[in-house]
Design a protein that fits this description.
The structure is a homodimer.
Chain A: H1 13-31, E1 36-37, H2 39-46, H3 50-58, E2 70-71, H4 72-82, E3 89-94, H5 98-104, H6 108-111, E4 114-121, E5 130-131, E6 134-138, H7 142-149, E7 153-156, H8 163-172, E8 177-180, E9 193-196, H9 199-212
Helix pairs in contact in A: 1-4, 2-3
Chain lengths: ~210, ~210
C-alpha cells in the first residue's frame, strides 16, 4: 500500500530548498536522453552527499530501485508536483517600481506555478495602466478587488518604509502567503506564510566575501 | 586608537545577512527625524534579540554609547560602507531572457552598489541591441571584451542547462564573483565567490508551507 500524503512527515526547509537543484539536474539528464538516475550520480554533479539526496527524496513520494536508481520521467513529475510547480498560484504584486515592474515582466515565474494577475501602487502615473499586459490598480482598492481576484500570494516590492503597512493590508485582503523582496523585516501572524528574498542582502554577502579574496 | 580593518574578525554569513535589516530600519527612523537608536529599540521592531544585534554590530567598526545607543547618521554610513553599498561594483549579466532582461531594467541595484554594464546572450535577435540602455553582446566575445569592460561580478540568468559552461566562461574572463539565479548548482574554484539566489526554490518553500496551513 502506498504511503499516504497525510502520513508523510513535514519536510525541513533546507531539504525543500535542495529539491529544485535535483529537479534542474534530472531535467538536464532527460534532455540528454537518459532515463534512469541514481542519487550517487546526482551527488557527483551538484556537491551534495548521496545519502543526503536519498534522505531528501524520501520526503517526496518516490522510490528508487537498488542499483538502477530513479526513473527520470517519474522523478521530474513527482518533484514538480511536490514543489507546487504544476499548479497555478494566483499572486498580486505591491509596489510597481523598478524591481516590481521587472518581476511583472518575468514570464518565467509562470512556468514555476506563479501567475501574477495584478499589480498595485499608489502613484497616479502608474495606477490604471498595464505593465506587460498586467493591470495596475490603486493599493487602496485591494481589499475590495481581491474579493473577485482571489489572489492567495502577495509579492512585496514597495519601498522598505511602507513594507509593514502594505503587508498588513495584503493580509486584510485575504492573502495567505507573502513573498517579501524588501530588506525590511515585516511581522506577520502565525497563520501567514512569509518568504523573504532580499536581493540586497545577497549582494552584501557577495561584496563582503569579494573583499576578503 | 581605532581598531584596524585588518584586525577585525571574519563576519559569519547569517550576521552579514541581518545587517541590511538593521540598515533598513534605522533609515526609516532617520526619515522620522530620530537621531539615536539602541539595539533594544531595533530588536523590538524586527524580531531579533538585542544581544544578537549588538553582537552583529560588533563586527562593524561602530560603537554605541551606554543608554544612548548609536548615532543614526553614523550607523547608516558605517553599515552602507561595510556592506559595500557605497562603492560601485561592475557587473555583467549572462542570459538576457525573461528574468535577465528584468534585472537589466532594475535600476534599484545601482543604489546598492551594483552597476550592470553589459548583457551577454547567444540569441541573434538580442545580440547587438540595448535593453534599458545597456548593450547586449554575444557570449562568445566576453573573454575578449572583458579586458576593457573589467567587470568583477557575473550575474547568471541563463537556462539551467548552460549554467555550468557559462560560469566557466565568466571565470575565464576574469570575473571573481558569480551571482547565480539559476536553480542549477554550479561548481566554482575556491578563489571565486558564489552567491546563489534561486527564486524558484523560494517559491517552492512558499507553496509547500501554504499547503500545510
Amino acid at each position: 500500500m502506498p504511503e499516504s500524503i497525510e502520513k508523510r512527515s513535514y519536510i525541513p526547509e533546507p531539504a525543500l530548498r535542495r529539491l529544485p537543484w535535483y529537479l534542474a539536474y534530472v531535467k538536464l539528464l532527460k534532455k540528454k536522453g537518459e532515463s534512469q538516475v541514481s542519487s550517487t550520480q546526482i551527488a557527483k554533479k551538484i556537491n551534495v552527499l548521496a545519502s543526503q539526496i536519498a534522505k531528501d527524496l524520501s520526503y517526496v513520494d518516490i522510490h528508487g530501485k537498488t542499483r538502477v536508481g530513479y526513473d527520470i520521467d517519474h522523478l521530474i513529475e513527482v518533484l514538480e508536483s511536490f514543489l507546487g510547480f504544476r499548479s497555478m498560484h494566483r499572486a498580486v504584486l505591491f509596489g510597481v517600481g523598478s524591481l516590481g515592474a521587472a518581476l511583472l515582466s518575468d514570464s518565467g515565474l509562470e512556468q514555476f506555478g506563479l501567475k501574477i494577475i495584478a499589480g498595485f501602487d499608489v502613484e497616479a502615473s502608474i495606477v490604471n495602466t498595464k505593465i506587460s499586459g498586467i493591470p495596475v490598480y490603486h493599493s487602496d482598492d485591494f481589499v475590495e478587488l481581491n474579493k473577485s481576484l482571489k489572489a492567495n500570494i502577495g509579492i512585496l516590492t514597495v519601498p522598505p518604509d511602507f513594507a509593514q503597512q502594505v503587508a498588513d493590508r495584503i493580509i486584510e485582503g485575504g492573502v495567505r502567503g507573502i513573498w517579501n523582496f524588501t530588506p525590511f523585516r515585516i511581522l506577520v501572524p502565525d497563520n501567514i506564510v512569509l518568504q523573504n528574498t532580499s536581493l540586497y542582502a545577497h549582494l552584501a554577502v557577495m561584496f563582503n566575501r569579494l573583499k576578503d579574496k
